[in-house]
Amino acid sequence: MNSPLIERFVASTRESHETWHDGLGYDLDALREMNEEERRQVEDLLLSRSGYDWRGIEALDCLGTARSLARIQWALQSKDCTTRTTAARALWARQLLSPEQLERIILEALDVTTVLNGMTHVLSLAQQHPTPAVRRKLLAKALSGNDDLRVHAAALAHYLAGKTREPFDFDHRPLYLRFGARDRAERERAFRDLCASIGVDADEFLLTGRKQRRR
Prior knowledge:
The chain is mostly helical.
């Protein structure tokens, strides 16, 4: 692999503090400039790897061959939410994922996502595909999600209900921050206020949550 374009691309795949901190992907411009043989060599290199992060998924999507797309399908099983959502976006854009499959991926990701496990990516995907089930799940996670998620789930649920101008409207920040409370009773009071704002029956959610906690 002595092609200057291949060398440039391979150099971009080496992880560093800068690539992690700044969220830098692989050099896709170099990939797009390659001839067919160079792209085949890069594809062989990428497919020889046992695992992928979001950067590798983007490169495979850029290649767009049947082999690369099959590997992106495989990446939907990743436990890393950023990898899963990147794969889902790529396949959805190529119409290789059904609406039901995409919804299921979002719903499952909302159960496990954290700040260190793709929360920004998961919430962005939920915002772009706000099915009734996704909106309901966001409301539920505002009340009973993990410490990282609750505040942002409340804000996004408020936005998707058409009550705010942006996904985290700072005019309503005091309400959202109440969902960060460790005390369940305090969160339930915040939840009632949020549900009243968007015209949802809070008692239905609260009753369901209590039943689930007793199991």
